[in-house]
Design brief:
Elements lengths: L1 E7 L7 E12 L13 E12 L2 E13 L2 E11 L3 E14 L16 E11 L3 E11 L4 E12 L5 E13 L15 E11 L4 E11 L27 E11 L4 E13 H4 L11 E11 L3 E9 L2 E9 L1 H6 L1
């Protein structure tokens, strides 16, 4: 690497070092003394960095970073101090492992896998503005998905969101298996959800969510070509499910709490039993379902139409047993 160094010290600002240069290439290990949480790898292209008592600012100028955790071409700035901050950082990612964020996140991100696509970030992990179109592959499950994301997220005290719109299509449900041991659903589908609130606070509000699941072999749900983040559709294929949800989800240290209303259009339990053998019912159901309370003692009520006629259901059950079965 070559470039210019400007160093200043003294007064209230303490030590400040500014570097502008070009990596031809630069080993990231060479700056471990400044920021040890960076992965081993190399940087190529123009760059800058500023070191102060507050932290370390990396200025990317169409800079390429490569490591065993994947590759990035970046424009914008990344601040590494007590946490991690992004200053209008635009990235093109190639097979980038989500675990690269672990050293800077208080609780590691529940989703695992490798990302390819474009992502723009501004803010910090308390309030992070996000826009991106990303392909994610989970090597542990062979599942894949394409995520179209726009809005604001937070991660430092559990997950939070503000006007966050996420569309996953196409989606192999298996790709979400790293989020929770209870996520055992398999097969193609799609998701479109709008979120606000905090999972560990008053609750994560689901303003609107549309989820589809299609039996393998019948194809994948698609989005309307004219709508960048439109509602997914599953058509009328036998065994396909389309569920629209609204309500609130909250978690504490011991349990997950739901307050949800779902419209089934329909829901095929026959198909879902392939992923959840513990389901006590089968067939296709249309109508409205309400879920309230902790998932270990979930209150449920439903007004449904089935192949055998109308069905009204009310009761309490342990939803964790269904996922574990």
């Amino acid at each position: 690497a070559d470039g210019q160094v400007d160093g200043r010290w003294g007064g209230a600002l303490g030590l400040r070092v500014s570097v502008r240069g070009r990596a031809n290439p630069l080993a990231l290990e060479d700056i471990f003394a400044i920021e040890s949480r960076l992965p081993e790898g190399t940087a190529r292209g123009p760059f800058g960095f500023d070191l102060s008592d507050e932290g370390f600012l990396l200025d990317f100028q169409n800079t390429e970073l490569t490591s065993d955790l994947g590759g990035i071409r970046a424009e914008g700035a990344l601040f590494l101090g007590g946490g991690i901050g992004f200053r209008d950082l635009a990235m093109e990612m190639t097979d980038l492992d989500l675990s690269v964020t672990d050293p800077w996140v208080q609780d590691t991100l529940p989703l695992r896998g490798r990302m390819t696509g474009s992502l723009s970030l501004a803010g910090d992990l308390d309030e992070l503005a996000v826009e991106g179109l990303i392909d994610l592959a989970n090597p542990d499950s062979t599942g894949t998905l394409t995520a179209d994301i726009v809005g604001t997220m937070g991660f430092n005290e559990g997950f939070s969101a503000s006007s966050l719109l996420v569309t996953l299509a196409p989606l192999e449900w298996r790709a979400l298996s790293s989020v929770s041991p209870s996520m055992t659903l398999r097969g193609p589908g799609s998701v479109r959800v709008e979120l606000n609130g905090s999972l560990y606070g008053a609750g994560l509000v689901i303003n609107a969510a549309d989820l589809t699941h299609v039996p393998r072999g019948l194809g994948r749900p698609v989005l309307a070509e004219t709508d960048r983040a439109g509602a997914p559709t599953s058509g009328s294929a036998e065994g396909a499910s389309l569920v629209s949800l609204r309500g609130r989800v909250r978690r504490d240290s011991t349990n997950l709490f739901l307050n949800l209303t779902g419209d089934l259009q329909p829901l095929s339990l026959t198909t879902l039993r392939r992923s959840f053998p513990g389901l006590p019912f089968q067939g296709e159901y249309t109508g409205t379902v309400n879920l309230d309370g902790p998932v270990s003692a979930l209150r449920a009520s439903a007004d449904l139409e089935t192949s055998g006629g109308p069905l009204t259901v009310s009761g309490r059950f342990d939803a964790t047993r269904i996922a574990d079965a």
